[in-house]
């Protein structure tokens, strides 16, 4: 059994930390102050499946054998609740591990995924799409079907790692708005929602004490 602390930060500044929807911006982490932002802390016990947090266990469905490496059973995990219906799973060191918006899918942070790049399917964009991905733009279908791009076959609503032509590490974490079959057929509009990208507010966010 793990003990989770539910943390409810108050005002985090004029910009939120995560571009989960097109109109969202990144959190200005320089304005985040733990003493000022947390309005209350409540201890809560959550029994995770096989001794792991339920949320993260569901987020690593295809590599359960590696979950002890990613989420040691003896660690103490907390759920950090923020404005805009955002939740973050952190470990005892306060490192951000997984996040979600409202009741959506739990997704790994890029820092965690860079350590363990095995539990998400990868979708590769061409070189021309890199600067748009890193500015927080959603991934358009042509960026996934043009020369230099490469797709792993997945269904609509799948959480994926966004790779890029000529790059070794993921640029972003996203969720498909169409199946990859439909992305190839339609070849226009948004193919993957950009949920978290390099150097956004979540990437810059300091460990939660």
Automatic annotation (TrEMBL):
Per the record, the domain of life is Eukaryota
Keyword tags? Cytoplasm
Q: Which SMART domains match?
A: PUA
Q: By its UniProt entry, which PROSITE patterns does this protein fall under?
A: PUA
Q: Does the keyword Transferase apply?
A: no
Any one cellular-component term (Gene Ontology): cytoplasm
Q: Report the Gene3D superfamilies cross-referenced here.
A: 3.10.400.20
Location (main, coarse): cytoplasm
Which GO molecular function, any one, fits this protein according to its record?
A: RNA binding
CDD domains to which the protein is assigned, alphabetical:
PUA_MCTS-1-like
The record's family statement is: Belongs to the MCTS1 family.
Cross-referenced NCBIfam families, in alphabetical order? unchar_dom_2 (TIGR00451)
Q: What is this protein called?
A: Putative rna-binding protein
Origin organism is Aedes albopictus
